[in-house]
Amino acid sequence: MTENHLHAKEKWFEEKGIHTDFQNRMTYGEYLCLDKILSSQKRLSGHHDEMLFIIIHQVSELWMKLILHEIKAATDSIQKGNLSAAFKMLARVSKIQSQIIESWDVLSTLTPTEYMEFRDKLGQASGFQSYQYRMIEFALGYKTHHILEIYKKDQELYDRLNEALHAPSLYDVSIQALSKAGFEIHPRVLHRDYTQPYEADPSVEAAWLTVYRDVETYWDLYELAEKLVDIEDWLQQWRFRHMKTVERIIGFKMGTGGSSGVNYLKKVLDQRFFPELWVLRTKL
Ligand code: HEM
Questions:
Q1: Residue 258 above 90 pLDDT?
Q2: Sequence-separated (6 or more) residues with CB below 8 Å from residue 239
Q3: What is the distance in A from the centroid of ligand 1 to the CA of 110?
Q4: Are 127 and 103 in contact (CB under 8 A)?
Q5: pLDDT digits over 48-94, tens only?
Q6: What is the rounded end-to-end Cα distance, in angstroms, of the chain?
C-alpha cells in the first residue's frame, strides 16, 4: 500500500469519526466473548449439515437463558406486587418464544438422509437433557424431581436445578397475587410443596373465573392471566413444531435420549402448566 493510500484510509475513518485504535479499548468481540461463542461449534462428524444442527441448538439455549432471566425477574416482581413490571418481561418472553418457533423452519431444511450421516455421533445425547428447558418447566410450575437424576455427574448444576425445584413458580406467585387481592384460595394451594407439579384446584379456578367475569374490577389480574396463557400457548406450539419436525426427520425411530421418540413428544403435549386458565374458557 502506498503512502497516499494509507493517508486516504486514515482520512476516511477520521471524517466519519470511527475509532480504529483498540490497543487499550474493549472491542465488540471482546465484550460479547465471541472467541468463546464462535469456537464452540465442534462438528464430531465433520459433516456439512452438523453445523446447522449444532447452531440451532445453541441459539435455542441462548434464548432459553434469556427466557429464564425474564421469568425469574417477573416472578420476583409479582411477589413484590409490581405487576406492571412483570407484564413487560412476560411480553418479552412470548416474543422470544415466537423467535425460537421460527427456528424450526430452518431445521426443517435438514433431510433424514443428511441427519442419518451424523446422528450416531450424538451417542445418548438429546435435548431431553437440556437443563435450561427443565428449569423453564420448573419456573412455570411443572416440577419433575426425578429428572434431577440426569444431572448427578455435575454437582453445581444439580444444586442449581434442586434450588429451582424448591422455588415457587411463576404460577405459584400469580395465585398468591389472587390471594393478596382478597380471593379465597385454599391453604393446600398456598402452602403447597413446591417440589411437586402444580395440580388444579377449585378455589383457584373460582378466583380466575371471577376475574374473567369482571375484567374492569380485576384488570391487572386479568392481564396477568392472559400473559400466562400467551406463554403456555407458545410453549405448546414450540412442542408441537418440535414433534412434527422430529417426525419429518427421524419418523418413529427411538430418540437418542432413550424415549419412544415422536410418541413420547406427542404425550408431552397433554401436559398443562396453568390448568385453570384453560378450563375457565369453557365455563365463561
Ligand atoms: C434433528 C433435530 C431433532 C431431533 C431428531 C430431535 C429429537 C428429539 C427426541 C426424539 C426427543 C425425545 C427424547 C429422546 O428420546 O431423545 C427430543 C426431546 C427434546 N428435544 Fe429434540 N430433537 C431435535 C432438535 C431439537 C432442538 C433444535 C431443540 C432445541 C433446544 C431440541 C430440544 C429438545 C428438548 C428440550 C427435548 C425434551 C422435551 C421434553 O421432554 O418435553 N430438540 N428431541
A1: yes
A2: 265, 268, 269
A3: 14
A4: no
A5: 999 999 999 999 999 999 999 999 999 999 999 999 999 999 999 99
A6: 76
State which of 131, 235, 265, 270 you would mutate to test the pocket of ligand 1, scoring each by most atoms of that ligand within 8 A of its C-beta: 265
pLDDT digits (tens, 9 = 90+) for 149-183: 999 999 999 999 999 999 999 999 999 999 999 99
Q: Where are the domains of the chain?
A: 50-283
Q: Name the residue with cell 413458580.
A: 169
The C-alpha torsion from 101 through 169 and 134 to 276, rounded to 10°, is -60
Please give the CATH topology (third level) of the domain spanning 50-283.
Methane Monooxygenase Hydroxylase; Chain G, domain 1 (1.20.58)
CA distance 192 to 172: 9
Exposed/middle/buried for residue 242 (C-beta within 10 Å: 0-12, 13-18, 19+): buried
Q: Is 257 in the pocket of ligand 1 (CB under 6 A)?
A: yes
